[in-house]
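Homework help board

Subject: predicted structure for assignment chain

Our instructor gave us this sequence and asked us to write out the predicted structure in token form, then describe one feature. I got the tokens but I'm not sure how to describe them. Can anyone check?
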Amino acid sequence: MQFIFTCRGAHRDLTLYEFKRYDASFNFIKWLDEEVGLAETGLSRTDLPWLIRSAPIIFVRHIFFVDLMCAPSELLDAAASLCAAAEQPVSVQVRACPEPCEEPEGLSTRIAERLLSNGIECDLKYGDAILSIYVSNNIIYLGLGDFTENLSRYRGGMPFYSKSPELGFISRAEFKLLEAFECFAIPADGINLALDLGAAPGGWTKALLERGARVIAVDPLKLHPMLQKHNRVRHYAMTAERYLALGTDERFDMIVCDMKANPEKSIAAVKRCYEKLTPGGYAIVTLKLERGFSYKHVLGYLGSVQPYRIVGARQLFHNRSEITVALKKPEENVN
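My token output:
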């Protein structure tokens, strides 16, 4: 079955390597754009997303399975035919190459209007059924799936987050944590106390506050002014190493780390916090990939996180030359 995938342009070769490493049936067909590829697999539309999440295949962001291909003149009919059996409201997501065979501007609205005229319910932003369309330079690809199959509910795996009405905007980094919560399906509730290592200026602290958590923020640098006197933030103006050496008795439901440090140092800091994390708690860490890194390095990083269990690892849309890894402390055995 053919599918379209997206990845960061700088890591196209790594993406293909991962697919070939974990899926023996994978066959790359061609690049449709700098960050958009067309491939085929013998895996089902449930097995491939499962493989991507569990392997994990890190450098892919978004996929959609190709159900139909058509010429521009056939697009509206093809979309209506594909969505005829949809049991949920349909969201229409359109992407196009630099020189498309059909002008993409306003295309999602035109398709939605046609679907509505055929009695198909649409919700362009939040529909649970996702009609994905890619307009290439000579043909249009269509697929109907959902956010589980596509790895993301956003067009091309590119989430958009608005600024918080309560705390405004601190840094682009906060969107990275919000994306990680969604990507790794981390529950929104149950975070009473969180630890933020390398917190300044406070984007991840802010994202945790918005989930209702109290936050211990650790960084020698100052937090953003809107966080400095927040009643649910306690700031330790010191390095992570010095804070951990204090031997405080706090226990955390979540630990996050976005330190500007090499991956080994970030992983070591999170591992030193293992006993401070409650059973079943999550740790989220950004691994800054150094220039000239290899996939062997990445595997080494992931292989060094025990006793944590890996929930997932992905190069998120809001990551740059880095990957985000979600870890979990196993629940305690109850006899």
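Reply (TA_rk): Your tokens look well-formed. For the description, you could write something like this. The radius of gyration is 22 Å. That's the kind of observation they're looking for.
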